[in-house]
Amino acid sequence: MGKRKKSSRKPAGPRRKDPLETNFTCLFCHHDKSVSVRIDRKEGVAQLFCKICDQRYQSKANHLTEPIDIYSEWIDAADAAEREASSTRRPVASSSRPARAPSVASDED
């Protein structure tokens, strides 16, 4: 058996952590990076707000909560509110008469 070749890999060291986003796109006004998230870990509260349209959302936070978590919760809460609003709306009144079939002109004369 021969000697092992030296690996060209770099030695394992501390990995560089890329910071997570803290500014996001607003669901309501669609402006990029207009939504900011602030987390107060002592109080256990996270606040999200849009600088453009002033939409706000507040949620509980713990020591593991990140801004992307609050943004995801906001999206879920907005979807749930939209589904609830659409299910509680009264259906539009419709006529009891069936719709008339469109008339088709024939080429026969």
From TrEMBL:
Biased composition regions of type Basic residues, renumbered to the chain: 1-14
Compartment annotation: Nucleus
Record-linked Gene3D superfamilies: 2.20.25.190
Keyword annotations of the record: Metal-binding, Nucleus, Transcription, Transcription regulation, Zinc, Zinc-finger
Claim: Nucleus is one of the keywords in the record: yes
InterPro entries tied to this protein: Elf1, T_Elf1_sf
Pfam family, one: Zn_ribbon_Elf1
BP GO annotations: transcription elongation by RNA polymerase II
Family stated for the protein in its record: Belongs to the ELOF1 family.
Descriptive protein name: Transcription elongation factor 1 homolog
